[in-house]
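worker-03 picked up job from queue 'complexes'. Input manifest follows; two sequence lines, order preserved.
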Amino acid sequence: MSFFRRRELYVAITFITGLLTIFDYFISFDALNNTAAALRNWVVLIAYFAIVLGLVNTFVFHGRRVFRKGQQWVYSAWLLFVVVSITLIGIFSGTNHPIYSFLFTNVYGALGPSGYGIMAFFIASAAFRALRARSFEALILLTAVVFTLLYRAPVGGIMPFIPQIGDWIQSVPSAGGMRGIIIGMAIGAIGMGLRTLLGYERGYLPE
Amino acid sequence: MVVMLILMIIPAVNPLGIPIPISDYTREVYNYIENLPSGSIIVVANNVDVALWPEEETFAKALFWHLGEGPHKFVIVNFGADSPLLISGALTDINFEISFPNKKYGDDYVLMGFLAGGETAMASFATNPQGVFEQDFYGTPIEQLSIMKELKGASDIDLIVHITGSDADSPVRQWVETFHIPYAAAPTIGWVPTYMPYYNAGQLVGLIAGVQGGAEYELLIGRPGSGLAINDALSLAFLFTILLAILGNIDHLISRLKGG
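worker-03 finished. Artifact:
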């Protein structure tokens, strides 16, 4: 097997770079700290390349659909047209150009939040249809929803007792529950990190 | 749903002026900035995208007003791809250059571009702020920006204000616990419970809860604006949702009494 296709090579690279990054946190030693800083800068560069890779994948996927006149190929063609147009405008005119700014602010900037804005109507509809106290647990859920909405509504701040009770719920049981989730996630991340460093997690390795 | 739409449009056209109490964690951010020594460097970090920008825009503009009026310097760093243009637009909307002629770009404030890499980018920036950028958002080489010459490392950062849609863990891990940089977060309202453990543990100097926190900050700096109108709409929408829930349960009760 070619040396560069041996799994042990990639596991070793993962192990060494992982250890370097971990030791950088605990040990103050110029050569180590500078190496770890360089590795972090490389990750930033790789992230930029990942964006380009995502763009290439978009072109391949949607380009294939357009070429083969697949399902809803018209939308794929429109997507590719928009991506190419905005990219060319940004590259040749700059992101401060009035046309680019107009498209970003008045098209993208309007459509983006609209998706979230529609949620308000879905939630209102769900409040009427789904938040019904059919059982004791549903009654508790309904009470929690109503109370949370009152607490989070700016007008709830001037209602009696709502702010005080809401602050207590947010600071004590809610924060406590969230703290447990965060600690659990952190322990899981440590376990996953150890498995990756020691080579037990092999999802990123070549086949 | 038409009713919901009307309830949200009315305050936008004619603000109702529903009073908003100022929460302690918003006031703590304001007081922290006020109490910083003159010439302190504040990093305004952003990784909010376009979809969540309406919730963060209010605080962003209020913060820039506050920083423009104050004696501090600030560096705007963007960890989201949409953030540079959004922040640039916010500065333009409040006419920052004209409103604060005493603030010179490059010396007192600067807008850096997008730094990809998420948590790793945050760590890289805190380790070596000068090393991760070659130029600012407008293409000016970093050597020509005197404020960046003052920012050699994490110890030169007096406060990070993080305008974010989410992402509670990464900044605390990389900025607070590793470099002990004072940190204030401005997440969307839905993410406030996630930040509460960190706030309760003293790892945050304060918290700005979405558009509500933005409106509170507008009141603190004495410049009530669009945030208050948005909060009026929020209040009406939330109350209407509660009313719908109550009506739904009344409908359910009537159905049960009828034997349905």
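worker-03 released lock.
Chain A touches chain B through 56 residues (CB under 8 Å).
Helices of chain A lie at 7-26, 30-67, 73-93, 98-129, 136-152, 162-197.
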